[in-house]
Amino acid sequence: MPQVTRADVLAFRVRAHQLDRTAGTLADTAVLDLGVQDTGADAARWALAVRGVDDVPAGALALVWTLRGAPHVYRRTDLPGVAAATAPFSEADAAKRVFDAAKPLRDAGIPVLTALDTVAAAMRAVVTAPTVKGEMSRQLSARLEAPHLRYCRPCDAVHVHEQPFRLAALRAGLELQPDTSPPVLQPVPGLTPAPEVPAHLDVVRGYLRLHGPATPQQVAAYLDAPVADVRAHWPADAVEVEVDGERRWLLAADVDRLGGGPARATRLLMPFDPWLQTRDRTLLVPDPARAKDLWRVLGRPGAVLVDGEVAGTWRPRKAGRRLSVEVDPWRALPTGALEEQAERLAAVRGTALAGIAVGG
Q: For the segment 92-122, what is each residue's pLDDT rounded down to a tens digit?
């Protein structure tokens, strides 16, 4: 069994995530296979920019609710495969993914997979043109039976359970309009799930390719799926490696990419960048206090990535047409590379850089 170190894994992931490159295209950007979570201002756009993708043709990307019910960006041409790849593996998987919505369905004798299809059919009937989420929810509440609904105290209204709502949207052939708040959903003409999952969109393989070496438990946590389902879909070409004494797995084709020294790059990563979505956070940030700050539940900062190590956190501050970047360093940082990243972020956001403030 190959034995690798934490440093080997970090270098592998920088290269797998293509954070060490300066130019790329949508077609060759690996993180788009697993989806880029678009949570926060310009989150997906910046995640692509730090991977060398600045030119995104209009309409080339689609924004849909998929894994963990979060909004993710994919290549539009991949949507049929994405719909198949991100669907629950089984009834048990569907029940786990919808959280507390599973119990009323189970009590009513309705399988969760059936419920998702029911909600999707109602969505297709409601959304024939761009529709605001609230209006869509109101109409769905009038069409669906009680087991699909819940009372929302803040709204003082009855809504569809949130996770079935989100997970059924792509099933219904709907996408999200970018940069809308509240969300606006619209039909994708002719969209139906692919009959088979394309290999490059397989979510278990995708996690191993980007976040490996990993365990079935880590993949399951990323997908919100039962470990048993992940094991049932475990790739036949996954091989065992030992990471600092722990047994993990990696795709056989990627084993030779381990090692080779650190991947030299400095990047400002958004709080929900794909790099930070790994489920072995202690490997990325061994210090518990720093990890707690980086992955806080509310108001997360971004991460300053230097040569594979998280070397600090950062936050953008905008005043009018000017953007400043506040950095909390965990060690000495490369000033020139930070300035380059901040300038690029300002350009992506259509502002001028006011400066970088580095804490003591």
A: 999 999 999 999 999 999 999 999 999 999 9
pLDDT given at position 1? 77
Final residue in a domain of this structure, among 153, 187, 221: 187
Within 10 Å of residue 237's Cβ, how many Cβ atoms? 12
Phi-psi domain of 191 (left: phi exceeds 0; alpha: psi -120 through 50; beta: other)? beta
Rounded to whole angstroms, the Cα distance separating 250 from 241 reads 7
Provide the residue range defining the domain that includes 106.
Answer: 3-187
Residues ≥6 apart with Cβ < 8 Å to 308:
7, 10, 11, 13, 14, 262, 263
Q: What is the pLDDT of residues 306-322, one digit of tens each?
A: 999 999 999 999 888 89
Amino acid at position 28, single letter: D
CA distance 53 to 29: 8
**Are residues 23 and 158 both part of a single domain?**
yes
- Phi, psi for 123 (deg, rounded to 5): -60, -45
SS3 300: coil
Helix 216-223 and helix 203-211, axial crossing angle in degrees, nearest 10: 110
Read off the pLDDT band of 360 (50, 70, 90). Answer: low
- 329: three-class secondary structure by DSSP: strand
- Compute the average pLDDT of residues 189-216: 97
Q: Which residues of 162-171 are buried (b: 16+ CB within 10 A; e: fewer)?
A: bbbbbbbbbb
How far apart CA 342 and CA 354 sit, in angstroms, is 10
Domain tally, the chain = 2
Whether 17 is in a domain gets the answer yes
Provide the Cα torsion 315, 318, 324, 329; round to 10°.
-10
In-domain check, residue 194:
no
Alpha-carbon distance 39 to 166, whole Å?
Answer: 15
What is the rounded CA–CA span in Å between residue 338 and residue 317? Answer: 15
Q: Are residues 42 and 179 in the same domain?
A: yes
DSSP state of 214: B
